Inverse folding.
């Protein structure tokens, strides 16, 4: 029983997703959540297994989003494939934008100081280090 629970999706997450679709006054029984938990877990396992088999045939160890999309098509689930491809595209775009924003933050906080004060030993002085944030010290 415990081993089976470890392979299933968390029931709280499944219930939360189910409630998003239902009217606010609707109630969900524990049995309904458990059945959906089992179905969703089985569906994910089914698709992941197909994608994993393809990766193994191609001698690859890392499965990616494109593998999942191809698995959905191979399993005849083209309707899901189109939605997943759109989501994957939006996700990758958001990740690129987030990476660019993080890069711009790092550049703007650290990029203007070309020279730093040093003491007689040639080492940067403590005074220069004290004006920097810990993050700036990592990049300098």
């Amino acid at each position: 029983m415990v081993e089976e629970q470890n392979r299933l999706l968390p029931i709280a997450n499944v219930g939360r997703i189910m409630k998003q679709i239902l009217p606010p006054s609707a109630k969900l029984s524990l049995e309904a959540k458990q059945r959906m938990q089992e179905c969703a877990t089985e569906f994910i396992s089914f698709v992941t297994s197909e994608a994993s088999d393809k990766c193994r045939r191609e001698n690859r160890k890392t499965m990616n989003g494109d593998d999942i999309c191809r698995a959905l098509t191979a399993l005849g689930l083209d309707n899901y494939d189109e939605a997943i491809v759109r989501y994957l595209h939006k996700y990758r775009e958001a990740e690129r934008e987030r990476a660019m924003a993080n890069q711009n933050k790092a550049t703007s906080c650290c990029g203007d100081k070309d020279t730093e004060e040093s003491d007689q030993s040639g080492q940067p002085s403590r005074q220069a280090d004290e004006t920097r944030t810990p993050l700036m010290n990592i990049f300098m």
